[in-house]
Amino acid sequence: MFYRLPIPRMSTSVPQGHTWTQRVKKDDEEEDPLDQLISRSGCAASHFAVQECMAQHQDWRQCQPQVQAFKDCMSEQQARRQEELQRRQEQAGAHH
């Protein structure tokens, strides 16, 4: 489960980029499917690092190391999942 924290607003003299707002999950609210996916992936820590960086800098260009780490984690997870699916298909085919 991910809790999204409100982002402090910067001075109005600073031009605003993306509105990177985060919301707090209510008890009676279902968990976001994307949050569920990230949680199951094992990449929650790197996703949280991206969220924290974006909240702090409000500029994705300053968060490239965090974005890359999250991307790498998700790619590794996807490769593991593909291998597992392939292994299951091979086992199912061998039993028939």
TrEMBL record:
- Its protein name is Cytochrome c oxidase assembly factor 4 homolog
Top-level taxonomy:
Eukaryota, Metazoa, Chordata, Craniata, Vertebrata
| GO BP field | mitochondrial respiratory chain complex IV assembly
Q: Does the keyword Disulfide bond apply?
A: yes
Primary location recorded for the protein, binned into one broad class? mitochondrion
Q: Is the keyword Mitochondrion assigned to this protein?
A: yes
Region annotation Disordered: residue ranges?
Answer: 1-30, 76-96
A GO cellular component entry from the record: mitochondrial intermembrane space
- All copies of the CHCH domain together span 43-75
The listed locations are: Mitochondrion
Keyword annotations for this protein? Disulfide bond, Mitochondrion
Query: Which Pfam families does its entry note?
Result: CHCH
InterPro entries, per the entry: CHCH, Coa4-like
| Bias-annotated ranges (Polar residues) | 10-22
Spans of biased composition, class Basic and acidic residues?
A: 78-90
